[in-house]
Design a protein that fits this description.
Elements lengths: L1 H6 L6 E2 L6 H5 L32 H14 L4 E2 L4 E7 L2 E6 L2 E5 L2 E3 L6 E2 L13 E3 L14 E5 L3 H12 L4 E4 L9 E2 L2 E2 H7 L13 H4 L18 H6 L3 E3 L2 E5 L2 E4 L3 H25 L24 E3 L5 E6 L3 E2 L18 E2 L2 E2 L4 E3 L13 H35 L1
Parallel strand pairs: 1-2, 6-21, 8-17, 9-10, 9-17, 10-13
Antiparallel strand pairs: 3-4, 4-5, 7-18, 11-12, 14-15, 15-16, 19-20
Length: 408
Amino acid sequence: MSYCLSHRGIEHVVLERSDVANSWRTERWDSLRLLTPNWQSRLPGLAYEGDDPDGFMTVPEVIEFVDHYADVISAPIQTRTTVTSVCCAGDGYQVDTDRGTWKCRAIVVASGACNVASVPAIASSAPSSIAMVTPLDYRNPDQLKEGGVLVVGASATGTQLADEIHRSGRPVTLAVGEHVRMPRVYRGRDIQWWMDAAGVLDEHYDQVDDIKRARNVPSPQLAGSPGRSTLDLNALTGIGVKLIGRLAGIKNRKGQFSGSLRNNCALADLKMNRLLNTIDEWVSENGLDNEVSPPHRFAATTVEKSPPLDLDLSNGQIQTIVWATGFHPDYSWLGVPVLDRKGEIRHEGGVVDSPGMYLMGMTFLRRRKSSFIHGAGDDARDLSDHLTSYLANTISNADSILQAGANK
């Protein structure tokens, strides 16, 4: 957004609570890599320049990439400035920080979608002997106690942590609810390449039937690795991870699990095959069938006939619970009445329900790719267009009011 605003000659400042790329410096586990290939790491004014376009950036590489981008575009960043409140002030906003107060006519909320780990209330019923950790606190298996681990949540984060922790010698049970299964590579190319080429990632927020649900769909079971391997439930059970249904409650020191595991897995298989059908149709429509590998389908997710419905949490077999149950933003500093009953900002494709306020960096904000690095560019161009028009119109209206007053 800063690049786009500068390009339009709009004076602005970027407030950062710590250093550039702070969340990547302080809130990511050691082995994490981007789940998008390097060639997709592109922002307005900068594309990936390395020699491994099909690789996946490590955490230090992401920090370096973001740092480099800030330098390339000469972003007017004021670091180590924590916003303490934002409220309406006249025809604009007042932004209070621990380093002073700013007044502005427009504001872009880009504070992130993953500020706080979403831990369900049932966590408080777990036996006190069990250690609990969230992905924001987790760094590597060495920080966990020896013994079994229950990972709750089977999206991208949960599957990656289950894989790493189980390989460390700690037996893992993975609680699986609704999830999105996706192969890393299909017909010889990365799944992100296919979704990019077929236009899946460009699907617009007003083209889907239920955008609220689309914005809350779990992240796909994708992982970035040097071998471009698929990390789905079959891969996890293949190394010994035990699957169990969605964690529904904890009572009398026992975890209670839903009996929907088989249905959830069947539904994920069905949706994956629909995506592959879309890709196959695009390949044929564009005459590429003879240039890529033939279409094929992956084995259905293997689930035992009668998965257990409870798990004793007091017999010492489970020593740690990892809550990979999602994240939510922190708007505790936002004093403008734009939050809905769930605490989310009301907006239409990033245009917030308050004149001159905009939102960036959220899942499916304007496009399916909005939460990815390469999705930010198109969203920023759209929203900076809107912001520029808003400023021009308010100036025009102010001039009209002033002119009307002068004619009286």
